[in-house]
Amino acid sequence: MTRRVVITGIGVRAPGGKGVKEFWSTLSGGRTATRRITFFDPSPYRSQVAAEADFDPVVEGLTAAEADRMDRATQFAVVCADEAVQDSGLDLTALDPYRVGVSLGSAVAAATSLEREYLNLSGGGRNWEVDPAGLSPYMFDYMVPSVMPAEVAWAVGAEGPVAMVSNGCTSGLDSVGHAVQLIREGSADTMVAGASDTPITPIVVACFDAIKATTPRNDAPEEASRPFDGSRNGFVLAEGAAMFVLEEYDSAKRRGAPIYAEVTGYATRSNAFHMTGLKPDGREMAEAIRVALNESRADPTAVDYINAHGSGTKQNDRHETAAFKRSLGPHAYATPVSSIKSMVGHSLGAIGSLEIAASVLAIQHDVVPPTANLHISDPECDLDYVPITAREHRVDTVLTVGSGFGGFQSAMVLRDPEEAA
Amino acid sequence: MSTSEEERAMGGGIPSAVRQTVRDAAREDGPAETARSGSSPVYVTGIGVAAPNGLGLERYWEAVLAGRSGIVPISRFDTSRYPARLAGQIEDFDASTHLPSRLLPQTDVSTRLALSAADWAIADAGVDASSATDYDMGVVTANGCGGFDFTHREFKKLWSEGPQAVSVYESFAWFYAVNTGQISIRNGMRGPSSALVAEQAGGLDALGHARRTVGRGTPLMVTGGVDSAFDPWGWVSHLSSGRISHATDPERAYLPFDREARGQVPGEGGAILLVEDPAAARARGARRVYGELAGYASTFDAAPGRVRGRAAHPARPRRGRAAGLRRAARLALTEAGLEPQDVDVVFADAAGVRDLDRVEAAAIRDLFGVHGVPVTAPKALTGRLGAGGGPLDVATALLSIRDGVIPASGATADVPAEYGIDVVTGAPREIRVRHALVLARGRWGFNSAVVVRAATT
Amino acid sequence: MQSTITMTIDDLHRILADCGGASEDWPRGADVHDRRFEELGYDSLALMEAAVRIEKEYGTPVPDELIPTLSTPRDVLDLVNGARPA
């Protein structure tokens, strides 16, 4: 008898607003949260736009000591974990801590702190041999960032399995998929899972500049992220986090928990092709979708909405469109597809979890968030991408997908708890 | 083993006091879950090792049995301004003789080691990856530092030459998933893949996840871990952990469980293993089976002082971690269907920091009784390899099973009596090994345990 | 800024080897001017990395939108040596 896993709590910090309500208001309103970078002077960089979150650790309730020791991405994760637990109504003190675990995704983890400490230690980048005098006591934890899930585990009192899943840009799907597996197999009953990344820092901007993966559309930052649009020319870097409480279905039901959705299927495959390149045929993503649907015992026609990876790079959007057609057949043309990256940008490892949150909210509201900035059609992207305006649409089953450097292709199926039951 | 299956089932041959202790421990450790989907054993059919005291499985094993250490003064940069100068350094690895030159501009030293170790593991297993179904092979590796040396060079270029100088390869040579991705690409493996980070515990987590993935239907997984960060920035990052030995004598720098333990020595390298579903391994006529990954578990230590999290400041290593480590060991044994008395050897985490050695000794003593099982720490000869440490210990445990010998723990000699553990010191101990328990702890409370056993055919 | 230094096929080969590794697919002694870079063992990343180097060494700007159109060594040599408008 397979244990079923449901989402009972959500915490979100994303560009455009604080918390789940404002996140949904941004998405359903089709508002874009991309802007010219304010965290540092972006003028020497090719891509000068990003989706920054307005986040103040003190306002968020972190102590000065916590704000000092935690990297920004950890701060996001801990705040979202708190919010998710609160949202779930779970009384952590009543749980067996051995049966509570954490699964946290992040692609570049403590990048912000790494860069700050690097500049401290190297005389502003002048010296190769760094000066140990200015060494932060937390430097090791920025290099080896497993302190991130540790901080979350401390925050929620978890003493079961604690994991950090770092699969690049699919981390946010894979960390939740990992948590689902742990509950199903019986290694934990409750998992606090999700992902966080805060990569808007010079080294990350520069490394995406180098491969021209981010957009140089600097003159109109709010229109810079344009997935599936014929004029798209790269993604917009972003930051954010989403954390969830995942529980075994029966115990969630017993305690009368608010059930947002059931995770009915998850799969990941690799393209084994290129660290950054994608073959246009979408074969491996299609396979991940097929396996996830199979696990959900769902026919392709059951999919009401596809929450796309939709990064806005030339190759991704074409690749993904091919994968949808390959896995769903003609139903791909009948299904609304949208990319929230058009509004909140691409927060690397975090975005998969933010997209799970968006999918769950789409189920809850029976509304499909739009793809903003989609004006010009592209013959290679010929599905229904819900341009500009959100759409009322019955959503019981969502397919959400991710694709990332290293070749990772992941898919997850989420279902309305009423329908799933 | 003197205890037969039946005796074990009856609890015969075991003093009742010990049985009582074991029951008490089981109660404290919490309910043992049995309904795990990953609970069927998987075979280890190939091993690739890149260790400071030996490149390649057999050279490493020879060095371990001979007590040869790979701990040396760091030669990659001038260490004179730093308070610690010793590391487990791999000195005889020339990437260009192992890998196509096209992979060199885009890889950190850690990824080159990981790719080579994966090649060796696959060759050792006699697997022809090109003839297997691509979706039937996956990759799960652990990573601690990412491509740190590589990324240090790119940080330097960014801040001394400007953004245009940053390499196109930085975006993936740095990140923690790089080894998984590169191994997958090099070998055409398109099955479920992942990368995990849990400092020194992460390598065992990768093995555990590979085992789970086989249990869920992927017949072959490449797994393990490799770490390296011996550029100047990586080195001071190690130093900031506050646990690094400042000793100057390579022989005496890292002495886990010794009365004179004075800290850790970081090392580089690790091991990559090929694990398979037993039926699939038999079907392809696997040439050898080193043993089984029979059990795995991970736990996390309570927040400092049981205060719910954020009020407590985790700036110092905490005492009293024994419970979490013992619980991981117990859960892994349960998953393997074994009792503590079935275990022939424990490969310890072996922190080399007195407080941490003491709590590990207590965990082992509580579970096995005073001097209840041989305990070894061959990592005293390599330094602590981060994500590579657990997989290398598992490889070593499998060789102990193969050759019936437990290696010694480097120069560790004088183990405090109050630890109450039987550390294998001085010379290897010849003994039949059927079941080994491998422990690993990651900084801030990660505990992982893997049980390996001789293959049941 | 237009360079006065001429780039030879050997120069290009050296830069590519630095940026993308020495390729086993680059045939010795054969005329490779019109072979596609993929056949010669260099992917789009190697080419992007090479573009930065070429700009630095030869002073020839290689605009982003031009890189995907550079598919053979001849394309690059023509660009750098001025037979083709940048």
From TrEMBL, chain A:
Chain ranges of the Ketosynthase family 3 (KS3) domain: 2-416
GO molecular function terms attached to this record: acyltransferase activity
Annotated keywords: Acyltransferase, Transferase
Top-level taxonomic group: Bacteria
EC numbers, comma separated: 2.3.1.-
Main EC class the enzyme belongs to: transferase
NCBIfam families assigned: PRK07314.1
Family of the protein in this entry: Belongs to the thiolase-like superfamily. Beta-ketoacyl-ACP synthases family.
Protein name: Beta-ketoacyl-[acyl-carrier-protein] synthase family protein
Protein species of origin: Streptomyces luteolus
From TrEMBL, chain B:
Database matches in PROSITE patterns: KS3_2
Family of the protein in this entry: Belongs to the thiolase-like superfamily. Beta-ketoacyl-ACP synthases family.
Residue stretches making up the Ketosynthase family 3 (KS3) domain: 39-454
Alphabetical list of Gene3D superfamilies matching this protein: 3.40.47.10
Organism of origin: Streptomyces luteolus
Name of the protein in question: Ketosynthase chain-length factor
Compositionally biased region (Basic and acidic residues): 21-30
Keywords: Acyltransferase, Transferase
Annotated InterPro entries: Beta-ketoacyl_synthase, Ketoacyl_synth_C, Ketoacyl_synth_N, PKS_Beta-ketoAc_synthase_dom, Thiolase-like
Start and end residues of each stretch annotated as Disordered: 1-39
Automatic annotation (TrEMBL), chain C:
Domain Carrier stretches: 3-84
Pfam family for this entry, one: PP-binding
Transmembrane regions listed in the UniProt entry: none
Keywords, ordered alphabetically: Phosphopantetheine, Phosphoprotein
Keyword Phosphoprotein in record: yes
Source superkingdom: Bacteria
InterPro entries in the record: ACP-like_sf (IPR036736), PP-bd_ACP (IPR009081), Ppantetheine_attach_site (IPR006162)
Record carries keyword Phosphoprotein: yes
The protein, known as: Acyl carrier protein
